[in-house]
Amino acid sequence: MEKKENPVPVQNIASKEKQILIGSRLYRAICRFDTDPEAREEYYRIMDTRIEVRGKEFTIREQILHVYSMLFCDDLGSDSNSIAGPDEVEATADRLYIGQAGFDPDHWYRMKYHFPVIDDDNYDRFAALVISDLKAGPLHESVKDSGDMLLVGERNPLLMTEEERKNQQLHPIELS
What we know:
The chain has helices at residues 15-21, 24-31, 37-47, 60-72, 86-93, 109-112, 123-136, 138-145, 162-166, and strands at 10-11, 50-53, 56-59, 96-98, 150-152, 171-173. By secondary structure, it is mainly α.
């Protein structure tokens, strides 16, 4: 799917407005992306929105990929100012669990949201899904209601035995 190249004027967006953009509307647009053309349009409109933060111009996409890199790619050798690319998102996607480590659709984040392949076409959508889910999706609600959090496991969980996977070090991630 090609990304739309509509130049969007730079907006000086307050923190609260940015939270709205990276919130439930973005989450819903991503969840309906494959089935609803209007959702795809909404996704691209939000992701291509240009904002100014502390005198620097970014798109929401760049902001999300920067946050994703800071939260999940620190052990991949990324510096603190980098943004996650397709390789970084693909390398970390299998490490994300909901509530507990397990490769079933209820606990493996990537399976739950039907991202069997993460590549150049959808890595930014996966990263946006994770961040918007933490900010305003069911995962955000689950943290408040039942305490289920997004957990980050160790590198290469696909190469671990079941026992190693159960005993891996997990770190909770929460965006309030």
